[in-house]
Amino acid sequence: MLCKYKYTTHLCVFMVLLLQLLSRTAAQSCASSCGEKFSSCSCHATCESLRDCCADYNHFCLDIEPRSGSLLGGADFKILNVTFQQNINLTCRFSSEIVTEGYVDEDGAGHCITPLLYESGWIPFEVSTDGLHFDRSGRWLSVHHSKLSPFHTSVLVNATQWQYYGTPGVGGDLKIIWIPSLIKAERVNIELWGYNETGEAYSANWEAEWKYLYTVGRDVPNTGVFSFTPHIADKPYSLWDLGSMRVSPSTKPDGAQNVNALWSGAHAVAWHLEEAFRRDSAAWALEKCISWDKEEKAMPDFLTEITDCPCTLAQARADTGRFHTDYGCDMEAGSFCVYHPGAVHCVRAIQGSPEYGAGQQCCYDSAGAQVLTGDSIGGSTPDRGHDWGAPPYRKPPRVPGFSHWKYDVISFYYCCLWSDNCKYYFTHRPSSDCRTYRPPRAAVVLGDPHFVTLDGATFTFNGKGEYVLLQSSDYQLSVQGRTEPMKFENGTVAMATRLSSVVMREKDSDVIEVRLTDQADVLQVLMNQQVLSFSEQKWIDLSGVFVFSPKATNVTVMFPSGTGVEVRAGEGVMTLTVLLPHALQNRTLGLLGTMNDDPEDDLTSSDGLMIPLNSSAQDIFIYCAGWAVTNETSLFTYDSTYLLNEYSSAPKHDPSFVPNFGVTEDPEDPLLTPVLELCAGDGASFCKYDALSMRSLDQGNATLLAYRSHASTKKALEPVRSCGWLSPPNHGQKEGTLYLEGAKVTFSCHSGYRLYGSQERTCQAGGEWSGEDAHCVADNTLAIVLGSLGAVLALVVMVIAVVAYTKKQNKEARKQHDDKVTYQQSGSHL
Q1: What structural domains and CATH numbers belong to the chain?
Q2: Which has the closest alpha carbon to 353: 407, 299, 389, 406?
Q3: pTM of the predicted model, to two decimals?
């Protein structure tokens, strides 16, 4: 049913109309009618719509509502725009292997129940009406439990009590709430499920497992609220450290899988385990901590392959291609950073590490400095299991959310929260400093449109067409931009253009396009030529790419290489920022230049010819036109008559559109004075061009703000030298937890100890600390040492005296012997 070859939508629409006209129903007829490009299409017996017949290799036929839900499954989604007979056997199959029961409601609408999954992202599904032939398909967005909308899950009202239940001062009833209409039943069961990962670590038999444990409440009214007092379970469940509560219809058997249900988020389940936890939670937790410590020692070291943290909060927030806000510690959302006291903001590395799929977390204090575990329990920690999982998901430790809980979160409870034994945890999860971090390079396209390349060269290009903004053959990365003429308020066309659409892909990732819409400052996102909706989720995990859209004016696209593409809409224009990691140094081409720290070669054509930066506007215009894409290389979508006529069928660079290459600052122009007052400082030339060419101060101000925002990003991403963490001396302390160039750290000793080494050390420009390591030596130890030295010296003097006396005695004895011999010899001659 899925076409395997790319096509343009207008051609497919035409072919569908033709198919409907001719009433061709057989798959063979459909394939032959679609032509060579569609030779791999298979059509239904009845081609009723575009979705039923001519879909491309990533186009899914069925539209559903809702489109997303928890990867734990249980969601009931409705199939739209299709009517089914009441007596059919509706069956749903996910990922070509997991089959669940569907049903048809009284209105003839089909429904599917999503299964328990161990992966996030788009999950293909198929629908059968006879249980044998799955001839309709669609896609379901499986979402990490913590990123799920509260309207699609159950909620633990007093979640802290759930996690701490049984510790002193915590007890009483626990409560869970949900939206009753999401469970198609009058009465429900409340169940506890446990999560574990079994088998030999990093081997083929390492498996993730969700298992039903027991029912907390049975046959309770579906009112949306349930309270209960935890009690000790009848069976031992000490192997289950974490789990989730499930609300499901009471008509289903206990623990039935893949039924309509709502799940809570993951949480520690110590409250139900055993009496030992209630009797002495700290001792119980220490035993768990030590057990985890032994397991960690037997596992391979993942720390050497994770990416290093940015040095400052500003860098961490600006490096959007590699790091994203940690939902548990977000200064913009006002979260409390429960697990990182002293921090105000944390970020996580977007991509898992290459071999182990491990994650990185970086936390910062109110001064913007990194918080390290060597200084604080609130320091940032790396993760054996990336919180968002890592492709190909499913198997440990790559399961989104739950692998992270298994290896990194619950162990923190055992070692740090429930017992005072963080030394075990931080031994295996030490903070990463930023000694090897290299910030990305930023380029921007803004206003009508103006370019600031990766190496900082600036120019203006007002061509109409589709152009290569950036490409890297080494990373198979391509970013293309479409420009269209601007219009004045009265609707007439201005002789200037704006960036109206950007499309991108890396290797074999999904193709992401972001474009302006007819609505003011609203962006539309397409994946493989199909519109993506962010009404349910703001973060979408796709094939080879992540997309984040917190609001309709902002979209950020992130690729595995660490490349980040930010698109912002304002005042009717699009601002594009591209962030490239250092790995792409000397590996880029296009209008955004060659990233090699040399702006002089940034105006290099696709055939290698270079023009000077001070070339005329006309020469720069000709140079830029040479970067037009071709029909063969275009990634754009042409889904309207306007796009078909103006871009798909026309030249990719429109030679008939000749813009104004400059603006005249006429002293008689009443707009000139306010423009000159507005457009001052850096970015003034861009601001003046846009304000005067569009006769709009608002347009000029928007350009100026976009330029200043880019300048702020560049400043935030300036390299910072780190000398690395310094430990306090034994029996002493240090002052200062900043380890960047120019920072000073001072040391002192506890009472009764004396400092040896450098009392103050400074982080130098070369990345090395000045001075020598500091040590604290006890005063009585020094006295003992000095006393011992005195005794040794006295002994040495005594030995020397004895040796001297012995030598003197031996000398006198030899003299007496010699005198006697001489006398005897003298006597013999007499």
Answers
A1: 9-146 (2.60.40.10), 148-279 (no CATH), 281-428 (no CATH), 441-661 (no CATH), 732-780 (2.10.70.10)
A2: 389
A3: 0.84
